[in-house]
Amino acid sequence: MEHALKILGKASSINVRKVLWTCEELGVSYEREDWGSGFASTHSPEFLQLNPNAQVPVIIDDAGVLWESNTICRYLAGKQHSTDLLPSEPAARARVEQWMDWQATELNRSWSYAFTALVRNDPEYQDPQQIALGVDDWNRKMGILEQQLAATDAYVAGPRFTLADIVIGLSVNRWRMTPMQRPDYPAVEHYLQRLAQRPGFLKYGCNGVP
């Protein structure tokens, strides 16, 4: 008998929301437990046995334990045989995964200092020069997305909504809500309007929680 999906992680986490939005798109039911800052500690021995990185989300189902948010999203789409979210044809799938990997490495890394300083107000991240450099790098990375969206005139990996739009859509929302100077990126604005037509984005992607 298949076990119910359990998601460990607080709903305000951007990486947990990737998984929640994916479940919404797939129609997958789940149980969620609050873990992370303000809730159960991810540094507890119990949690570290599940994820030695002490980070959320973690999922548990009939296949066992899995961590890393983008990997979890790919797993869930594959398990549900959702070729709309994650194509089976190698080239189309690679284009989706390319942008998912870009989000996790290039884009995610670019916002680290600026977001921690400007939204989380961490006293150890208040160097004005580092903040300015972080904002510039973040905006440059978003400029890459602007060019891609201007080319597709639709979604990140092409004409259809995919997993790439879940992970990047959440990142765009984070960029928009951070109090800083931003260039005018019309393709990104139109992209957000398209995402706003999806219940999953309204529920998890544009909720104003960092």
Shape: globular
The CATH architecture assignment of the largest domain turns out to be Up-down Bundle
% residues in beta strands:
5-15%
Major sheet details: 4 strands, mixed
Uncertain runs: none
**Radius of gyration, CA atoms, in whole angstroms:** 17 Å
Going by helix content, strand content and strand pairing, the class is alpha+beta
**DSSP, total strands:** 4
> At the third CATH level, what is the topology name of the largest domain?
Glutathione S-transferase Yfyf (Class Pi), Chain A, domain 2
Strands in their spatial order, largest beta sheet: 2-1-3-4
H and E string: EHEHEEHHHHHHH
Which class of the largest domain in CATH terms? Mainly Alpha
Beginning-to-end CA distance, first to last residue = 37 Å
Mean pLDDT: 95
Task: Write a short abstract of this structure.
The protein is α+β, with helices and mostly antiparallel strands and 210 residues long. The chain has helices at 14-26, 45-50, 69-79, 90-110, 112-118, 128-152, 163-177, 186-195, 199-205; strands spanning 5-8, 30-33, 58-61, 64-67. It has 2 domains: 5-79, 3-Layer(aba) Sandwich (Glutaredoxin), CATH 3.40.30; 90-199, Glutathione S-transferase Yfyf (Class Pi), Chain A, domain 2.
What does this structure look like?
The chain is an alpha+beta fold and 210 residues long. The chain is 55% helix and 8% strand. It has nine helices and four strands. α1 packs antiparallel against α9 (199-205). It is globular. The chain starts with a strand and ends in a 5-residue tail after the last helix. The model has no long low-confidence stretch (mean pLDDT 95).
